[in-house]
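Hi L.,

As promised, Alpha-1,3-glucosyltransferase:
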Amino acid sequence: MLQPYSGAGSPPMFGDFEAQRHWMEITLFMRYTVLLSELLTYTPAVIYFVCTSAISQLTGTPRLSPGVLSLFMFSYPGLILIDHGHFQYNCVSLGFYLLAFGLFCNDRRLFGSIAFCLALAYKQM
């Protein structure tokens, strides 16, 4: 070893053993909170967006089947890799934005603006 590590020569302090012993439970809890937030925000927004067929209203083209469109939206790699892997909770902002977009397409501007403000303000600190 070229240089000693930062805790060399000093005994463990301030719950070092506790943190090492419970890291799997903490990781599992964080994964479940990401999945729960996705189920509460992103999933209903996708269902609303698909059921109201906002895409066909904008483009005028025949829309994809709701099942295929939902499959594409739920299998988005950014959500799977970033949200579920790094606990970023971006599905909440995306869910609010998708809900706002669907509401705007259905001329529900007040609720759409509320959902859009929630999407913008969610990740602000």
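The radius of gyration is 21 Å.

Thanks again for sending the construct details.

K.
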